[in-house]
Amino acid sequence: MNRARVLLSILCFFITAEVNAENKELSARAAANDANGDGLLQKDEAKYQVKANFDAIDCDKNSGLDGAEIRKFLDGKGCTKHVVGANIIHKKNYPTGPGPFPGIIALHSSGGFQSSNLLIENFKSETWLKAGYAWYAPNFFAKHGITTRTRMDTFNKYREDIEKELTAIITLMKADPKIDSKNIFAVGFSNGGFWASFLAGKGIVTAGASHYGVWKANMGRDWTNPYPMEYFSSKSSPLLALHGENDSTQRIKWFHEAWSQIKDTPKIDEFVYDAGHVWDCFPIYPKMKKNMC
């Protein structure tokens, strides 16, 4: 009996080790950048978003990224501790003091939850906290397995699910004794700008701001998705849409076309910058073409 248990334990150990080793293997794309062939990506081997967020992705702090760490980052999970429960994964933070504070729901870009939280200036410099705002930041990609590659699923395949999940987060914020339930604002970046439009358009938050938001929410030449325009009505909360004239990710012509469909909605306003996409992430490159945020 004992011998059987020992053999079973050994077998389980090797199976677990094999699975873990497989999970840590670099993808073919990442392995192509593994110049020294050690099965890890060092900082000088990493590229693009992985390089920019290297220290945060390196969960075990061994100065090398394995496949599991990179996949967690791309899936928006990261190494950080999140609040997990009936609602989708989210982070939150409060200014010093008892409150209640006005609240912000921060909605990440197609770069993912972890990437946005590291790059957006309000998170890096704690701008919102210093100004007296509490914030909640939900990860609306993780539950549905959405990645940068499958980002368009956000606006069609999982749109109704995410609507319910973000509404539930607002309900949670309103029940938070440290947050002023009558002063909750949505700020969304790129993909998240679509969801700021949803929350403001449906009157779920006090007001919203869409930073270089998604207005044409489908691929291809034709316009097949009526959202986020369909969210707006005479009952909408105020929304400020900020967009770059030289945005190559969400082109200015799409922004103008979308805006023409909702311009008669009360309480909405627009402001067009001489800038490209993600100007607040890379202020020294205001006309940067790549969507890195």
Task: Note down, in words, how this protein is organized.
The protein has 293 residues and is of the alpha/beta class. It folds into two domains: 2-74, no CATH class; 90-273, Rossmann fold (3-Layer(aba) Sandwich). It is 33% helix and 15% strand. It contains eleven helices and seven strands. Strands 1-3-2-4-5-6-7 form a seven-stranded mixed beta sheet. β4 (179-189), α10 and β5 form a beta-alpha-beta unit. The longest helix has 23 residues, at 2-24. Mean pLDDT is 81; it is low at 6-22 and 284-293.
Q: Tell me, what is the CATH class of the largest domain?
A: Alpha Beta
Q: What coarse outline follows from CA principal-axis ratios?
A: globular
- Measured between the Cα atoms of the first and last residue, the distance is 57 Å
Instruction: Tell me the fraction of residues in β-strands, as a range.
Output: 15-25%
Kindly provide the radius of gyration, computed on alpha-carbon positions and rounded to a whole number of angstroms. 21 Å
Under CATH, the topology of the largest domain can be stated as: Rossmann fold
